Amino acid sequence: MSAREPRIELRPAARAAGESDAPTANLSHLLAARAAEHPDRCAVRTLGGAALTFAALEERATAIARGLAELGLGPGDRACLFVRPGPDLIAIAHALFRAGIVPVLVDPGLGRRRLLECVERTGPRAFLGVPRAHVARVLFPRAFRTVEVAITVGRRRGWNGVTLAEIEGVGGSGWRPAPTAATDEAAIVFTSGSTGPPKGVAVTHGGFAGQLRALAQLYGLGPGGVDVACFPLFALYDGALGMTSVFPDLDVSRPGACDPARVYAALAESRATFTFGSPAIWRRVLPWMRKHGRRLPELRALTIAGAPVPPRLVLGLRELLSPGSEVYTPYGATEALPVTSIAGAELAGGLVARSEGGEGSCVGRPAPGIELRLIGIADAAIPAWDDTLLVPPGAPGEIAVRGPVVSARYDRDEPANRLAKIRAGDGTIWHRMGDAGRLDADGRLWFLGRLAHRLRTAAGAVMPVPVENVYNTCPGVRRTALVGTGAPGAERPVLVVERERGAGRAAVRRAILARAGTPPLAAVLFRRRFPVDVRHNAKIERRALARWAERRVR
Predict the structure, then answer these.
(1) pLDDT tens readout for residues 508-521
(2) In degrees rounded to 5, what are phi and psi of residue 357?
(3) Residue pair 214/405 in contact by the 8 Å Cβ criterion
(4) At what angle do helices 87-99 and 27-37 cross, to 10 degrees?
């Protein structure tokens, strides 16, 4: 499929008399434009559940924003948002954007301690959540001590505050959307915490607008499309693009445990043209579709991200799409997305063999607007950009990026800012991805792994992904993880293996030892299931796995 760039404009919002006519950058203003163009088109729905047209979504977003203003909330205030995926979530998010209120988005699956730490650190003034979330607010008041306005999405029980229905019922006129500049804070989105404590990324309205443009251009997104939102936050872009959001029957905190039949049903029944999801989802959906002889003729673009994606998974999914449709793997992070992207057709043109031969995982060329450089690997902060930081052509280095989708800072976390952000002479910010990569002669980026996961052996540093890609091709292997045991500088490489169902341990071990190369393995261990991140259920929690291996290799 050739990507087309839809006409995406940032239009000014209506303003009260005397307000500035400065341009705005706000997803909710684009939603208003789409509602004016196609009021009766479905904007968001759940299969077998609630649905909203663009006109109804626009009306709800405006009513909620007006109600929040009546409660005294306004531009710059922060609001924790704990709402299940569906029409309520989308209406509330656009209402917050429209009012200039900053939603704080934390994964509920982080666990109680980390979740409460994230909430306490951001200091929200408002809290919008389902009844279960309010129970946590009542039981752990310290984390929520800054909350002055509590709103229940559903039935309010024995706690204070108002309900979302009461907010929407507030009358009145004369309220206008808040004027927002591109540099204004739009949301605090927390990282998954797969390499340490979750960090709050301050995303600006301009950052969201940049993401919208890049994604639309890369994947041909625009009015009339249908997105099955296997990653719910992506649905925030759908309304601005004029697309319909469909929420599948999926536990977003456990995507790797999804029912593949239900995911397929959402894609087929909605006649989806686009979907975005974790590799953990498609690892389950692909074999189910093959077994039952199912295809996805309407789907034009299927995107997989959140962790390194096995090339064979991409190629397998391509076989189930119609000619002209494509599977894409974007690379990026909460701090910068998208950074690069690659289509399955390019992987099929010889890159799979290079990946499985130990070159790493090819993640494509830079996305629109992205500047990408490789710098020398260092664990210390780099306060100022200098071209002497760059590695020679073809050499591995740390990935550094800048552009409209790159966040300038973490929220209230100066140590993280010092380590991850490099200030350029023109005042712009380079973000250190914390990943190692290499650029080939054709300008494609090859991902080598997280720097925090590199092994520090007596023979030097070893990045895990190129090694794992080799062993992942062994018969009976589902996936592998290379971890180090022992002291840094003398770590021993240990390969931990997840087997395919029915594969014998002895046969898999023989296949791995027959393929063994550099670095030499100190041990091969087997584990039924790897610990993974809470957001995508695909990133391997390597530190936990290394501790587990340490107890078994002496």
Answers:
(1) 999 999 998 889 99
(2) -90, -5
(3) yes
(4) 120
Per residue in 122-144, pLDDT tens? 999 999 999 999 999 999 999 99
- 472-486 burial, b at 16+ Cβ within 10 Å, e below that, comes to bbbebbbbbbbbbbb
Helix (H) or strand (E) holding 32: helix 27-37
Which DSSP string do the residues of 188-219 spell out, in sequence order? EEE---TTSS--EEEEEHHHHHHHHHHHHHHH
CA torsion angle 529 531 537 542 (round to 10)? -120
Please say whether the beta carbons of 212 and 240 come within 8 A.
yes
Please give the pLDDT value at position 16.
32
pLDDT digits (tens, 9 = 90+) for 153-197: 999 988 999 999 999 998 667 788 999 999 999 999 999 877 778
Q: What is the pLDDT of residues 467-476, one digit of tens each?
A: 999 999 999 9
DSSP-based three-state secondary structure for 103: strand
Name the CA dihedral angle for 160, 92, 72, 126, rounded to a multiple of 10 degrees. 50
User: Residue range 474-495: average pLDDT?
Assistant: 97
Instruction: Name the region of 201 (left: φ>0; alpha: ψ -120 to 50; beta: rest).
Output: beta
284 phi and psi angles, rounded to 5 deg: -90, -40
**pLDDT computed for residue 537 by the predictor:** 78
DSSP 3-state percent helix, strand, coil across the chain (nearest 5): 35, 25, 40
Question: 75 - beta bridge partners?
Answer: none
**Other CB atoms within 10 A of residue 333 CB:** 20
**Using CA atoms, how far apart are residues 540 and 532, in angstroms rounded to an integer?**
5
Q: How many helices (H) and strands (E) does the chain have?
A: 17, 26
Cβ-Cβ contacts under 8 Å for 386 (sequence gap 6 or more): none
**φ, ψ for residue 353 (rounded to 5)?**
-60, -35
Q: Name beta bridge partners: 274.
A: 227, 301
DSSP letter assigned to residue 243: P
> If DSSP codes are grouped into helix, strand and coil, which group holds residue 419?
helix
Distance of alpha carbon 33 from alpha carbon 51, whole angstroms: 19
Strands laid side by side in the 492-499 sheet: 477-485, 492-499, 523-526
3-state class (DSSP) for residue 553: coil
Say what the pTM is: 0.92
